Amino acid sequence: MADLTLVKPEVPSALRRLSDDFLAHCRARGLSPKTWRDAYRYALEEVFLPWCAEQGITEPTQLSTRVLERFTAHLLEDGGRRGPLSRASVGSYARSVKAFLGWAEREGELAEKVKVPTPAVKRRVLDVLSRDEIQAMEDAAKSERDKLLVRVLADTGLRLGELLGLRAADIATAGGRTQLKVRGKGDQERLVPVSPALARRLARHLRGLRAEGTDRIFVALRKGPEGRYAPLTQSGAEQAIRTLAVAAGIERRVYPHLLRHSFATHALRRGMSTIQLQTILGHSSLTMISQVYSHLTTDDAYDAMMALLRED
Q1: Residue 42 burial class via C-beta count within 10 angstroms: exposed 0-12, middle 13-18, buried 19 and up
Q2: How far is the first Cα of the chain from the last one, in angstroms, to the nearest whole number?
Q3: Contact 280, 165 (CB under 8 A)
Q4: Which of 47, 115, 183, 253 is most buried, taking the most CB atoms under 10 A from its CB?
Q5: DSSP 3-state of 63
Q6: 297 has a pLDDT exceeding 60
Q7: What is the pLDDT of residues 74-90, one digit of tens each?
Q8: Average pLDDT, the chain
């Protein structure tokens, strides 16, 4: 009988344990799985920690700005496990590591303040949809659900996940004004105004759904095997938007988040303040707005300045 050899379980390094504590901290704060799992955990466990292990870095106190410069340079020059990485991907990993080390510094785990270099990324120009193109998509829809899918995204700037989570109780009307109670990132709630015309359409649509025994605003077009309408899925909504764009004769790629960008661009061009837009979109700061919507043209700036200087 062969001798059995006991293999001692691998003891995680102090840096790995600290990473686990950070991810637990993120979950305890109520961050969305997309943030802590898809962004932070992947960047740390699949990219940063393996590189640190190769470099013999196991203790948080071994980390320094110089070490992090080598890490970013490695990603830019050598790429990841699946090949070369874009500067945007490297920047995304660097920001996740920066969030981790910022927390570690506040916890007193680092020997010194560490800066994580992030590569400059050329600002992309958003090719947003015009209001006529959005109307063409709505006109191409054969169901009221799909018409409302386009119109609510285009006229409120909701994220797709926020829209799919809407229920009857989230439509609030007071003093002749209707607003949607939206649960955004980090389970933060906000109120998003809707026009009277859109409010009436939502009310009519919802009356029909309530007769079917559901309080969801967006559901599948056909009943499932159990005889009920299932909530509309993310993939179902994305497919509907793609199909409507093709039917409307729009040749470039159209996706739900593009309607959010289009709403924000239209709002800024019509004179909405960035602070108001920040509240409606549910951004925690103005930074995202200033970065993403830098595509507004010099013509927009000229028109805004002339409107400002125009005498009453």
Answers
A1: middle
A2: 99
A3: no
A4: 47
A5: coil
A6: no
A7: 999 998 888 888 888 99
A8: 86
- CB neighbourhood size of 239 (10 A): 11
What's the CATH architecture for 131-307?
Orthogonal Bundle (1.10)
Find residue 231's DSSP bridge partners: 219
- Measured CA to CA, the distance from residue 100 to residue 247 in angstroms comes to 45
- Per-residue confidence (pLDDT) for residue 88, from 0 to 100: 85
Question: What residue ranges do the domains of the chain occupy?
Answer: 14-106, 131-307
Could you write out the three-class secondary structure of 245-269? HHHCCCCCCCCHHHHHHHHHHHHHH
Reference 20, options 4, 8, 36, 9; nearest CA is 36
Of the candidates 140, 186, 264, the residue with the CA atom closest to the CA atom of residue 28: 186
Q: Is the pLDDT of residue 312 over 50?
A: no
d(CA 112, CA 19): 17
* Amino acid residing at 312: D
Residue 123 DSSP label? P
Determine the 3-state secondary structure of 288 from DSSP: helix
Residues in the chain: 312
pLDDT of residue 39: 85
Residue 188 is predicted with a pLDDT of 81
> Diameter of the chain by CA atoms?
99
- Tell me: pLDDT of 140 over 80: yes
Q: Which helix (H) or strand (E) holds 76?
A: helix 65-78
Q: Is the pLDDT of residue 275 over 80?
A: yes
Q: Tell me which residue of 210, 171, 176 sits closest to 191, measured CA to CA.
A: 171
